[in-house]
Amino acid sequence: MAAEIGQVALILAFLTALFQGAAPLVGGAPLQASTRIAALVQGGLILIAFLSLTYVHAVSDFSVVNVVENSHSAKPFVYKLSGVWGNHEGSMLLWALILALYGAALAIPGQFSTLKAMTLSVQGMIAAAFIAFILFTSNPFARVFPAPADGMDLNPLLQDPGLAIHPPFLYLGYVGFSLTFAYAVAGLITGKVDAAWARAVRPWALAAWVFLTIGIALGSWWAYYELGWGGFWAWDPVENASFMPWLAGTALIHSIRVVEKREALKVWTVLLAIMAFSLSLVGTFLVRSGVLTSVHAFAVDPTRGVFILAILAAVTGGSLALFALRAPLLQSRAGFQPVSREGAILLNNVFLVTACATVFIGTFYPLFIDVLTGTRISVGAPYFNASFLPFMALMLVFLAPGAALAWKKGRLKPAIERLWPALAAAGAIGVIAAWLSWPGPVIAALGAGLAIWAGGGAILDLLIRIKAFSSPLGAAFGRIATLPRAYLGMTIAHIGLAVVIIGIIGAGAWRTEVVRFMEEGDVISVGGFDARLERVVEAAGPNYTAERAVFSIERGGAILRDLTTERRFYPVRAMQTTEAGIWTMARGDLYLTLGEKSETAGWAVRAFFNPFAVWMWIGAGLMALGGGVAAVNAPRRLSRRTQTISANAAAVPAASQGATP
Amino acid sequence: MKRMVFLAPLALFVVLGIYFAVGLTRDPSYMPSALIDQPLPVFDLAAIEGEERGFATSDLDGEVALINFFGSWCISCIVEHPVLMDIAAREEVIIAGIDWKDKPGAGARWLEQRGNPYDFIGDDPTGRTAIDFGITGAPETFIIDRKGRIRYRFAGPITPLIWKRDLKPLVEQLRQEGDDGP
Predict the structure, then answer these.
(1) Domain enclosing residue A602, as ranges
(2) A57, A507, B36, B148: which could form a disulfide with A610 (CB 3.0–4.6 Å)?
(3) Are B79 and A323 in contact (CB < 8 Å)?
């Protein structure tokens, strides 16, 4: 019964979305206002459909195909719930749900304007397309008769807490860019892209960016501890699919600030908003069509690819056609000097978009070559590292001084002079890192120095602004509360970026790996630690059996702790997974995995020491936090905030101008 | 001129869209092989530990067969394994396995644990025969006709859909070819 309720709700949601898309375009004020109701109704209907699917998964109703294919009666309950989106049909329904929830969240608060009606209309059209996609190619509610006795279980790699929450965050990010996209299209239609437009869009752009940041970090974290190869990022097409919208989105949250403050870079910002969502759709196309081989393409179907390509053509093609027609009418109000905050943001945008383009080319190059010549090639990590990282390095060079520049017209020399202690620290740490990591790559040490320059510069600028060097500590830190939220958020996020980069350099370039066969009692040494294989025991979980190895970790003869690693076997899917044993410390992760047993030599054990690995996740958390802090710049309190800003600026003119005349 | 700048993103997207559309018609797991319609490489492989018989080119004389490269170290082979078991149980086609770059005994234990779908198994611990076949990874499967020629190559795990849609019709056609008898 629940499946039928879900099916009907989905059909009604499709009709409502059609109405929501069409109403503001054909009608006057009353029809416009009804868009708001339609968005709420559509949200409610999709929620009912999603809850219906959750229900049939929760009670293991094996008369529903989706449950049979992705669940098993013995599966832990939490994974019965996460199994709802652990498959193609359910994940598309989650996509539609998040889209509808964003629409409803936009519809509920505040005043209703033409801009909002148009935005909701665009949202409605996207929703209609995706619900149609679900109804016609990926129905999660299809029944099977007679019902089998039990299901085929969920892919065991997905039975993991990290991956259970990874898709919702990723989709909150992807789909969040649908709102900035809808705003951009509405802005093109109404011809009004101004400070008010930017104030309306910025929180949504930041929210989407925050969720996407968390989603990517979760995915990377999952790959790190679950796949058992000690790495965290492989430049796989599907990883790139989430990274490209993130890069475009990062450019967007910067440039949108310029529209808000200076009413410049309008055309560029609108284009970025279109790009960010289009790249999200490209990501969906990549994962769901199987057009490229990837570890993530578990099941693919070309008809779905055709449908998503049609959606992509309509959304991106349509919006870019509109862009070609209407963007020339968007006039920037103010010019600016190249050396200014706007100039720095534009430079940051150039780096980010170029970096995004290199990732795009690398990801799709095999496809282009295949279409042109029929040859199969693959593009690996060396290409991406060689083409992507230099742009990131350049960006880091300019990050700290750029963020310290004044709007409209800044001065570079005083900004750098003010930040010289950070520059000195960066140089010192770069040299020390090169010395300590020798004969490791010098370029990695240089990267570490750049991260210190960027992060240290952000911290130093903050300390100067709160007058930490010239007033009592308590008073100085009290001033943090009076700082503009946008500035505070930016600083936190920039520090987070520096922390992430140190983690990436540590775990990527400085990691050490040892592989050997071990009998019980043998010792493997890595990163200054000795891991003694105490015992290997058989263990059983609810739907798997496992070989569990217990190591005791020693350093200089002293026993520090135990570390356990597992190799699991899931009989229903006949699959094995690795549960790495990880000891996380600030200076690095000790990482152990258990491999096959050889008749003669014992167990194959891989041991890694990944310096600063945990910094990646902490840094990503800081970036997300920074985005969140910057997002809660409530428009209603804007006037008061502006006063605070000007009062603050008056109090510390030298600091905020970056110069002492 | 200024107009052209604003049209550029659309033009770029149209080009990309064409690539995507054509790309959709390509099967990413399809790997062209220089060996198609060529006779099978000559090999005579020893038995894996615990088995009596090895696998040699001459074993397939006049039969349509699948030759499947696998290894106990290969995760995708675990995914593919139940499908092969199913084909072995239901279909009249010879399935030969070549245990690729495995440690002594590992392949036998792997099959003991999961069941053995193979009519012949050869041991290729050094990967020499795999090089003759030009394989790129495991699992990889070749379809051999009655004259001992390679007719099809599939890289990656065979799924029930791929078996039903691509491989099975070819196997049946090849059996017909033999029955009509040139």
Answers:
(1) 512-611
(2) A507
(3) no
